[in-house]
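Bug report

Summary: structure tokens for DNA-directed DNA polymerase differ between web form and batch submission.
Environment: batch mode, default settings.
Steps: 1) Submit the sequence below via batch. 2) Compare with the web form result.

Sequence submitted:
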Amino acid sequence: MFYLLHGQDIYRSKEKLNELVAHFKTKVSDLGFFRIEGENFSEAEFKELLKGKTLFEKKYVVVCERVLENKEASNFILDNSDDLAKTDNMFLFLEEEVDEKILEEFKKSAYKIQEYKPLDGIKLKAWFATKKIPANIASEIIKKSGSDLWRASKEIEKYALGELTAKQETVAEYNPFAICDAFAEKNKVKAWIIYQQALKWGIPAKEVFFKILWQIKNILLVKKLAGAGVADIAKESGLKPFVAGKAIKAAKNFSEEELINYSYEMLKIYHEERRGESELPIEFEKLLISS
């Protein structure tokens, strides 16, 4: 049998997935656990798990994360949906968006389907009420986070650690581009210090993160144009002359391969936090130190 947990509120669906896994681990003895992700899906492996037999001849739980985003995987799973419904083992699917056709097919045979839509209004306030924090603190966090429960949960953690007050003030002198300049200069100590100051001032780590991602994209763009022999880079890039000028200067400090690797690592950090696999503030700090 199988569950499908899906929806844009990946925080709550991931929370439910962890709850189910914990339940099976504590309530059912002698279970095996497997994890499959869409990017490394194997038909042979899935079919073997579907057969219900392993080397140790015991039942098991298979966690499938973002597998249905893989078109070949989703087609294969649909073709085997009857076997998926009949197997004695438990398959847990976690998805953000599910194609309507797949959803309709799953409704015919799934043990249970739960959709998690972003919370708002009364439902959002009710979620905060379960966190047992003062109403004024909850209101401040809602203003900053909206329906983004990942961000809200981090703010609640900060409050629990005594780092958040009901009225935070951002230092007027904070310059959001200072860390971009430090990164462009490859001055990792300066970049790290500015990042720590930004956090102390109440600037969300994600805000600083996207500033650096913006900088990397700009530098990579002008690097590619320069490599192609483009004369008027500012005009061709669509960047404002001042921004283009700084990016051209910074491009001298990086190879194109370095910039591509940074882009990959930044996107990896973002998506891993979205999946609940890591914490962006920590992984971003590691990247700054290693840059």
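Above is the batch result. After comparison, the two runs are identical; trailing whitespace caused the diff. Residues 243 and 256 are 19 Å apart (CA to CA). Residues 2-115 form a domain with the Rossmann fold fold (CATH 3.40.50.300).
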